[in-house]
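In this notation, each integer encodes one residue's backbone shape. One such record reads:

___
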Amino acid sequence: MNRLFLGVDGGQSSTVALIGDETGRVVGIGKAGPCNHVSGSGSRKKFADAIAGSLKAAFGQAGVENATFEAACLGFSGGFADKEALARELVSARLYEFTHDALIALVGATKGEAGVIAIAGTGSIAFGRNSGGRIARAGGWGYLFGDEGGAFDIVRQAVRAVVRHEEGWGPATSLLPVFTEAAGARDGNDLLHRFYTEEFPRARVAAFARLVDDAAREGDHVARDILMGAAQALATLVAAVRGQLFEPGEITPVSYAGGVFGSGLILERFRMLVELQEANHVEAPVYSPAEGALMEAYRLGGVNCALDSALAGAIEARAAAEEK
């Protein structure tokens, strides 16, 4: 087999590994659990299981048992300083690049070109790189002090609205019965207390953002206002990054990534707000963050080839079916 290259997107919800050959063809994809932490009880094992599991599945798709990669790029949510040493033990490569998930998302979204990306999954961040290679970021400071516009923040705003409604000092919203039923809670007070327990980790709480989107599309004004606020926050992060990297009037591609943008209401509002500045052009991502990581691995290995991931969709669909 040709020389192999590896791209890994290690996020708060899942870990995706992509293996490509030296022609740019994706030959294997693997998925496993989240790997955004290595500290705390059991976190180191979860991280190792996520990397090893995604890699094993990708090797299986590629039809090889194991290999030393020519180059590997691993992008991690929450940074890589505390993950690099363990990742080197789990991944064998001649050349390594360890970075954060925002960079690989930008590379994938813009095919490596200059631009800005807003990422909104469980958390949120905006990141950009200009033609001179200078980078900047805004947001991404975690669920306590940041992550505006991310799924967890959307749910936090919704729970606050639910409690206000129940206590009689907020407008009526269908979110109260929707949330309590989904969580198996008796009322808003019980819901809030459940969300403080280990039974509801951040990723599980963040998944309730889909219910906010459903309610907004069904006409709930409180839910809609929450989503519009999320879009505004994400557009503001983009504006902050753009202002640091690009001149006024300079054409700037802006893209997006993460499950929050699966909401048509948020995406439409985000696009409108960002494009109020005429030089901005919101474009759908060309490639996924994992594909961006693979592109970075090719660059690191000195391989100049176009990424051919036509088979990745079929492989990913098969892998998802196998997980069920």
User: Anything to note?
Assistant: The domain at 112-285 is CATH 3.30.420.40 (Nucleotidyltransferase; domain 5). The longest helix spans residues 221-245. The chain has 13 helices and ten strands. The longest strand covers residues 69-76.
